[in-house]
Specification:
By secondary structure, the protein is mainly β. The chain has a domain of 102 residues: Neuraminidase (6 Propeller). 0% of the residues lie in helices and 57% in strands. The protein has no helices and 28 strands. The strands form seven sheets. The chain has a four-stranded antiparallel beta sheet with strand order 2-1-28-27, with no helix packed on it.
Length: 321
């Protein structure tokens, strides 16, 4: 019901690889609390999973799979980027139009940096040592010097940005949802160097990258994944995925790409076959499990969703419509 208030219990669904037998749900991590959620980020080196949960980031140890900390004091969190080389993480706080820097060891807040309107997707680029926050409402990206926490520049995108990735060699890529395209940005000059249409894919959201083979994996609202050459921009394959995708991931060791499909409650697994790609399986997860993170050490996938408590009674503050 429109404007109804719900009690939300956030948890992660663990998808464990079974080799030739495929994947299965292996358990859940109860988080609790109220409010929505968005992106997850797995820092496999430091064994932490960061889960955006409304006004705070919940931190989970990837080995014990227990909650070990919270980063609070924000308004509406979207994504988390990690710069291990300087010991700093970065959070896009869409409600305050800021990027918040925090210490990876202590989880304490370090800086708040002004971004555009509603910073959403966020990525750290090692080649330029910059963080790129993609601002959904102002349709631009804020480039931030990671070490000094200062703004290096603003990049006009000409459309609504979604999830970004970095190739580690000086290019940052981002899905432009309302244009159904990918933009490529030079991370040092901050110039948009290419715009590539994703047809027949429409309204892309999640994006992942195979850095070795130079392939991008964009998941789209019309239940398709586009596999794109990261140098030429050519769509080299399209594959059927589930309903309501919002995140993509790539497992380099196993040469698998993934799409988390919240409306259908499935995880689509895409297998690389030489120069081609095929759907290996669709794993049942949970309704609403639309975002995910991959632990590159264990190859587990973590997906966030929620269970809802009873709808509260109607009131002047919470009328039913």
């Amino acid at each position: 019901m429109k404007n109804a208030l719900f009690t939300v219990v956030l948890f992660g669904t663990l998808i464990a690889p079974l080799g030739a037998q495929g994947y299965k749900v292996s358990g859940t991590i109860q988080i609790g609390g109220n409010g929505g959620w968005d992106y997850l980020t797995a820092d496999y080196e430091n064994r932490k999973l960061y889960v955006s949960h409304s006004t705070e980031v919940v931190v989970i140890n990837l080995d014990s799979e227990k909650v070990v900390g919270h980063i609070s004091g924000m308004t509406r969190i979207h994504g988390i980027a990690v710069a291990n080389e300087i010991g700093t993480g970065f959070i896009s706080d869409g409600g305050s139009n800021q990027v918040v820097a925090f210490d990876l060891k202590t989880l304490g807040l370090k800086n708040k940096i002004k971004a555009g309107t509603n910073p959403d997707g966020i990525v750290y680029d090692g080649a330029s040592k910059r963080v790129f926050a993609f601002n959904g409402r102002s349709q631009d990206a804020t480039a931030i010097d990671a070490a000094t926490a200062t703004v290096a520049g603003t990049i006009r995108l000409g459309g609504k940005p979604e999830f970004p990735v970095s190739d580690g060699k000086g290019s940052v890529y981002d899905n432009i949802e309302d244009k159904s395209e990918i933009v490529r940005i030079d991370s040092k000059t901050l110039a948009v160097t290419a715009r590539w249409p994703l047809a027949p894919c429409e309204s892309p959201s999640g994006l992942a990258i195979d850095r070795s083979k130079r392939r991008l994996f964009a998941v789209c609202d019309n239940k398709l994944m586009a596999v794109v050459d990261a140098d030429s921009g050519k769509v080299v394959a399209t594959l059927a995925i589930g309903e309501g995708p919002d995140a993509a991931a790539y497992d380099a060791a196993n040469k698998l790409a993934f799409s988390s499909n919240g409306e259908s409650g499935t995880l689509t697994v895409i297998r690389e076959n030489g120069d081609g790609y095929s759907v290996a399986e669709n794993v049942s997860t949970a309704e609403g499990a639309r975002t995910m993170a991959l632990d590159e050490k264990t190859h587990k996938i973590y997906l966030a969703t929620a269970s809802f408590g009873p709808t509260p009674a109607a009131s002047a503050a919470n009328p039913r419509e």
